């Protein structure tokens, strides 16, 4: 089964979600001059480059909303291929139902797991509910 990634449907947030958690993010919109001479701002961020072999301590990767899809450009290494393949692999994982996805959705799921304290409280509540139901039933029986 091959997975096609619909890049046109991906948002800036989708890209940000796939960055290493340690990455710095700086809001950096991109100015765009329209045909009528007006300038608009396109949402964008600079972050640490994800190209292989580029240890980017001073964020130089610019991600911004292009006309059709998200555009990336590293002002330091300019290694488009490597950045492409970084995101491509991440998105392949995300959109392949058969692969184990380690992205933000998985982390969210993990954090929803209950702690021993929460489990104790839940069981306690369930027991109380059960006892209450039983008491109600007994009371109803007595009314007949
Ligand atoms: Zn780079």
Spell the H/E element sequence.
HEEEEEEHHH
Question: How many helices does DSSP assign?
Answer: 4
Tell me, rounded to a whole number, the average pLDDT: 87
Helix content: 40-55%
How would you classify the helix and strand content by structural class? alpha+beta
- Give the total of domains: 2
Strand content: 15-25%
Any idea what the shape is? elongated
**Biggest pleated-sheet summary:** 4 strands, antiparallel
Distance linking N and C termini = 64 Å
- What's the total number of strands? 6
Q: What is the rounded Rg?
A: 25 Å
The unique ligands bound to this protein are: zinc ion
Show unreliable segments: none
Cross-sheet strand order for the largest sheet: 1-4-5-6
What does this structure look like?
With 144 residues, the protein is of the alpha+beta class. It has 2 domains: 7-101, no CATH class; 114-144. Helix content is 40%, strand content 17%. The chain is built from 4 helices and 6 strands, in the order αββββββααα. It has helices at residues 12-17, 80-95, 104-111, 116-143; strands at residues 25-27, 30-33, 39-42, 44-47, 61-65, 70-74. Strands 1-4-5-6 form a 4-stranded antiparallel β-sheet, with no helix packed on it. A two-stranded antiparallel ribbon has the order 2-3. Bound molecules: zinc ion. Residues 49, 51, 54, 56, 60-61, 74, 76-77, 79 line the site of zinc ion.
Features:
144 residues; alpha+beta; 2 domains; two-stranded antiparallel sheet; binds zinc ion
């Amino acid at each position: 089964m091959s997975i096609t990634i619909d890049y046109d449907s991906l948002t800036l947030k989708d890209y940000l979600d796939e960055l290493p958690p340690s990455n710095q993010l700086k809001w950096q919109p991109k100015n765009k001059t329209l045909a009528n001479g007006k300038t608009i701002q396109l949402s964008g961020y600079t972050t640490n480059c994800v190209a292989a072999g580029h240890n980017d301590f001073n964020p130089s990767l610019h991600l911004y909303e292009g006309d059709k899809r998200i555009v990336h450009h590293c002002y330091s290494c300019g290694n488009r291929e490597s950045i492409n393949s970084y995101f491509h692999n991440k998105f392949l994982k995300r959109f392949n139902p058969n692969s184990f996805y380690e992205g933000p959705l998985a982390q969210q799921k993990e954090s929803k797991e209950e702690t021993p304290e929460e489990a104790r409280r839940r069981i306690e509540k369930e027991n109380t509910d059960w006892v209450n139901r039983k008491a109600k039933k007994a009371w109803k029986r007595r009314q007949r």
